[in-house]
Amino acid sequence: MLPEILRQNPNFSFALADNGLTFNFFRMFELTNEEIRRYSRHLILPEVGLAGQRKIRNTSVLCIGAGGLGSPIAMYLAAAGIGRLGIVDFDTVDYSNLQRQILHSDADVGHSKADSAKAAIQALNPNVQVDLHKTRITADNAFDLIRPYDIVVDGTDNFPTRYLTNDACVLLKKPNVYGSIFRFEGQASVFAPHLGGPCYRCLYPEPPPPGMVPSCAEGGVLGVLPGIIGCIQATEILKLALGKGTSLIGRLMLFNALDMKFRELKLRKDPKCPLCGPNPSVTELIDYEMFCGIQPEPVNPGSNPDEVSLQEMKKALDTPSLGIKVIDVREADEQQIARIAGVPLVPLSTLPQRFTDLDPNVQYYIHCKSGVRSMKALRFLREQGFKYVKSVKGGINGWADEIDPSVAKY
User: What pLDDT shows up at residue 214?
Assistant: First the structure.
């Protein structure tokens, strides 16, 4: 009875009783003439054909992040005819995203990334069912978000979310198609212990110390790099859907764009892995911010005794008699983009060699781009005996917003 209903009603949907989600059956039993034209280059591949294209159409994928990696992943999966694509993203589009996040355009700046992603995907292929999850994935909602999908793809850029995604996928027995990027380098793999491979914890048992690995906002990223890594992730998803080829399960692919070189590392399951090993100690989701050593934001953001405001920094610059000196710990190429007159440059990368040039008895206000590296510099100088140092909250981007709009933001 049900197959006949589906044949007569191509867009037949029903509500799943246990969680209220609505599913579309993607016309499982045949391709329309329009779909045959659209996917004709797939259909003439012996490894795909009509049966393979139906498998692609009947596969559901949850894409965590609609940014640099999520953009090419979502676009190529939609073009390939994936049946159902979930997008998890709570952020809004910023001008700085447009250099690499091809889901979004100038007109989307200031708007929801999830909404922008859905519009771009459906403009490319209206046959794809797009589910939006405008929320941050957390230990509280991860199972509910991931459980309805066949495959999960990690397009995130922070360690707490990577460990959370990995743990939830392992516990739910879902393939986790992983990718990460930084500056000119990227890596990709597929973590699926239930298919015989290792998990992310087997590769990285412990997260790096907080602040040890700069974000793309701090270190930069070549705009095309997420396109390359994201396309590799999309390829792995299609291979999983088709059941064809040799996947990246048990392998870590490394790419260097400057050298245009690919390398591969063999990965094995860690018999001591606390998650996928024979004697797991991680059997439920945990506090991943705490696990990664990230301190929670203070209830009152202005209460951090190590920070000063942009207005206090301006007062120090305008009133030399106060005896407070301001230093910039960004890199030299960043100062060429934007600078504040009269503020000397002491890059954080050179601070261990140059801190002896500073007077430990003088009060310093330290600024960077947004306030992250200035806090690192503060902690380093405190360790060297500097008692009178403060980090400027908001950095030069905040200065451009609140003090001097002629200073460029980047």
Answer: 77
CA 81 centroid distance within chain: 24
pTM for the model = 0.81
pLDDT at 346 over 60: yes
Q: How many Cα atoms are found within 13 Å in the side-chain-facing hemisphere of 24?
A: 16
pLDDT tens figures, 106-161 = 999 999 999 999 999 999 999 999 999 999 999 999 999 999 999 999 999 999 99
CA distance 343 to 327: 6
Q: Is the dihedral of CA 167, 170, 171, 172 positive or negative?
A: positive
The span from the CA of 108 to the CA of 373, in Å, is: 30
CA distances for 347 relative to 202, 205, 218, 354, 397, angstroms:
35, 32, 13, 9, 17
Query: Would you name the residues annotated as active-site residues?
Result: 216, 368
Residue 221 has pLDDT above 80, yes or no: yes
Q: Token match 């009783």: residue?
A: 17
Looking up tokens 């027995």 gives 173
Strands 389-392 and 307-308, bridge-based pairing:
parallel
Residue 327: beta bridge partners? 366
- Any idea which residue has 């792995």 for tokens? 236
Could you give phi then psi for residue 296, rounded to 5 degrees?
A: -65, 150
Q: What is the pLDDT of residue 298?
A: 53
Any idea what DSSP says for residue 261?
E
Q: Give the chain's domains with CATH numbers.
A: 58-291 (3.40.50.720), 307-402 (3.40.250.10)
CA distance 322 to 315: 9
